[in-house]
Amino acid sequence: MMLHEGLQRDGFEVVVASNVRDALRLIATETFDVLLSDLHMPLAGDGFTLVSAMRHTHPDALTVVLSGYPALDEAMSANCAQGFGKAGISAAGSDAR
């Protein structure tokens, strides 16, 4: 089951964008409470681009950046871009605090 399917099954309204360009259009025109994004995405940017746009357009929204790559430095950069520092960063099940 895909993440969006599980969220929909649990009653959440889910909007899916297949690339950064489409996601940026949605962020600019709709209201969101949460952004779930992969760090590495096709077309016109990445998860950092979306976090920045989301924080500018929807400053109270929760942003969650996921990655299938084991690059802790990238995860830390994404987390710091959200203003959280190193707290909450985890790689391969180990706490990086």
Architecture blueprint of SSEs:
Elements: H1 3-9, H2 20-29, E1 34-38, H3 47-57, E2 62-66, H4 72-81, E3 90-91, E4 94-95
Helix pairs in contact: 2-3
Question: How many beta-strand segments?
Answer: 4
**Portion of residues within helices:** 25-40%
Major beta-sheet overview: 2 strands, parallel
**Unreliable residue stretches:** 84-97
Gyration radius (Cα, Å) is 14 Å
CATH architecture: 3-Layer(aba) Sandwich
* Spatial ordering of strands, largest sheet: 1-2
List its salient traits.
alpha+beta; Rossmann fold; two-stranded parallel sheet; two-stranded antiparallel sheet; 4 strands; 14% strand; disordered C terminus
Q: Would you write up a description of this structure?
A:
The chain has 97 residues and is of the alpha+beta class. Strand 3 and strand 4 form a beta hairpin. The C terminus is likely disordered. It has a single domain, classed as Rossmann fold (3-Layer(aba) Sandwich), CATH 3.40.50.2300. Strands 1-2 form a two-stranded parallel ribbon. Strands 3-4 form a two-stranded antiparallel ribbon. The relative contact order is 0.14. The chain is 39% helix and 14% strand. The chain is built from 4 helices and 4 strands. The radius of gyration is 14 Å and the shape is globular. Helix 2 runs parallel beside helix 3.
Tell me briefly what this model is.
By secondary structure, this protein is of the alpha+beta class. The protein has helices at residues 3-9, 20-29, 47-57, 72-81, and strands spanning 34-38, 62-66, 90-91, 94-95.
